[in-house]
Amino acid sequence: MTPTMDQMRAHRSIRKFTDRTVDDDTVQAIVSAAQGAATSHFVQAYTVIQVKDQEKRTAIAQLSGPQAWVEQAPVFLVFCADLSRLETACDMQAGAMEKGWAEQFVTATVDVALLAQNVLLAAESLGMGGVFIGGIRNDPQTVCDLLAIPDQAYPVFGMCLGWPAHDPPPKPRLPVEAVLFTDRYPETHDRQMLSDYDRIINHYYLHRNSNLRDETWTRQMADFMGRIIRPHMKAFLEKRGLFLK
After folding, report:
1. Which residues form the Nitroreductase domain (predicted)?
2. 129 domain residue, yes or no
3. Cross-strand pairs, 129
4. Which residues, at least 6 apart from 163, have a Cβ–Cβ distance to it below 8 Å?
5. How many helices (H) and strands (E) are present in the chain, helices listed first?
6. What CATH code is carried by the domain that includes residue 131?
């Protein structure tokens, strides 16, 4: 193990923050470091918007859940998968960009996810903490309207950052043997391994330092995957000019 690997394994979601501010230079340094992330074909198909306006923060916090930490965190970022800049690049070269293809959508979404994970890891390396806010996709059109996000771009998730005011334990992940295989996909998923993991997660939920509950991973996933979530996303993406073909 290395200090970087230890940092990665120690990740936990932070939703309570101290009053200590985070200056703009620190935010810029974090994002600049995060830009070292891999990017398909060097497209760098992402844009990050730091939301400082309190009215906009309040609106996003409400549509996201509500999630009060969106209002309270020293830093709130919105990460956009963004092909708009690439359209400008094509125009500068007197070319026309092909639009609406699924591969472009996947490329931009992967690019921004890689960047965002690097942002959080860089912040954590400084002693900060944060949490991803997928809830902005509850009403992505309002987020676009609030932040003037153009067509050929969409908000994928938000992120709260700041100095932790609580110390939750890391949530145990699946054993590596459940996700790492050699040469081919497994014929079946190991049910005994998942049952053992259920007991680990149940113990975690029953003994963590807040929000105690009697829950297992497979029960949680069966509930989550048994519901239709954000059915508006397909129509929203098509309206943005994305994922049309």
Report:
1. 9-163
2. yes
3. 162
4. 17, 18, 20, 22, 74, 127, 128, 129
5. 10, 4
6. 3.40.109.10
